[in-house]
Amino acid sequence: MQEEIWKQIKGYELLYEVSNFSRIRSIDREVNGKYSTVIKKGKILKQFITNGYAKVVLVVDYKMFNHTVHRLVALHFIPNPENKPEVNHKDGD
């Protein structure tokens, strides 16, 4: 059985991680509340399908950013020495 490996998402360090099993999670972090600092527990993010692709929303400073899950996995787990701009699935999709 393969082990799940987590890597911090580039541009979202200390906020989100991606795994080699195509899961995305937020990381436990301290958040300044009105009266005190609280620990916000990390969780696995829900994915949604748009045009046949699994996507996830990452939030930074109250701004939302949509990302395709397969692209995040490829950027962090598949070597790209030729710096190619696209990910081509084995089935051609």
Describe the protein in words.
The mean pLDDT is about 90. The protein has about 90 residues and is mainly β. It has one helix spanning about 70-75; strands at about 5-10, 15-20, 25, 30, 35-40, 50, 55-60, 65-70.
Task: Describe the protein's topology.
Elements: E1 6-8, E2 16-19, E3 24-26, E4 29-32, E5 37-40, E6 48-50, E7 53-60, E8 63-68, H1 69-77
Antiparallel strand pairs: 1-2, 2-3, 4-5, 6-7, 7-8
Quick structural summary:
The chain is mainly beta and 93 residues long. Helices cover 10% and strands 38% of the residues.
Mean pLDDT across every amino acid position: 91
**Major sheet: arrangement of strands:** 1-2-3
Q: Helix amount, in percent?
A: under 10%
The number of helical runs is: 1
Topology, number of strands: 8
Listing every helix as H and every strand as E from the N terminus to the C terminus, the arrangement reads: EEEEEEEEH
Radius of gyration: 15 Å
- Portion in strands: 35-45%
Offer a few descriptive terms.
93 residues, mainly beta, 3-stranded antiparallel sheet, 1 helix, 10% helix, 38% strand, elongated
